[in-house]
Amino acid sequence: MGRGVWAMSMKQVSMTTRKRGGILIALLCILAATLASLYVAHRNKAYPSSDSASLEAEVVHVASVVGGRLIELSVQENQHVHKGQPLYLIDPEPYELTVKQAEANMALATAELANQKRFLAVREAQAATARAQLSKAESNRALADRTTARLAPLAAQSFIPWQQYDQARVVQSDAGLSVAQARQQSSAATVAIGDLASAEAALAASQAVLARARYELRQTRVVAPADGYVTSLRVKTGEILIPSQVLFTLISDDAWYAVANLRETTLAAVSPGQCATIYSMIDRKHPIEGRVNSIGWGVLTTDSSGAGRALPLVLREMDWVHVAQRFPVRIHLVSPPPLLMRMGATATVEIRHGAACH
Question: The Multidrug resistance protein MdtA-like barrel-sandwich hybrid domain covers which part of the protein (predicted)?
């Protein structure tokens, strides 16, 4: 019986020991999980990352400011083009005719200006003659005034006949009338001279019309504004285009970016110029070096959708709990492999760490 009691005691001690060991192991597991969670949270804040970023590039919506029939299309869908390379041609004939008409109008305006210059010279000569006639009339009146003044005392003392004095008075009166007429003619001739303002303005207007016509003629030939890839091309020659109609989109390949929507709680660790590692989903084996270019200053939420329609819309993932808002972080890719660059492709972004930042 003593042996049975001893066995039961040993069994209870063993069970108590195992229970304590299990509790200790559970506590250690909880502690390890807590420490791992804290480490992960700290690492996520210190080294923000996103596996839902997208690759982007600048785009140009290719269009001409003039309209007409498309007679030549020099590119095809997904073709790579270089800056200055011809893309398409709009029928230039109507614009060539407009240029010829503008050139003719400018020639008429130039000829009219030359005629007005000749007429101006004639009117200036006539005004000079009128001024000379006025000067002559004033000299004759002055002479008549002096003659009358000299003859007046002689006629009063009967040294000369009164008829001679009367004739001098008539000459004096006629000289006064001649001066008045000459002054009026001189004033009229001066006013009639005018200027070349209207003719010069007409010539300037015709020159502007010609410059505009030549500009529109040049716009019938559209060239690539930058190096890039042709996309969204859905027309053929013969299409009638209206002014500023987008024919296709050109994806510029001189700079590529990764845009990652990062939680606002991690933005404190992000600043422009920081290194980033980017993996394109096309081939995740090749790390791509990047530099943080900018951080978005605003996003469009569902609560303020009517406030600013130009802001990027970033939806929250859940509505029943408080979810941190996300802001777009733009990262410039440094010498990315061309075959991995696709507009809108998914990418993974790691800020301040990763293979490309070592």
Answer: 58-246
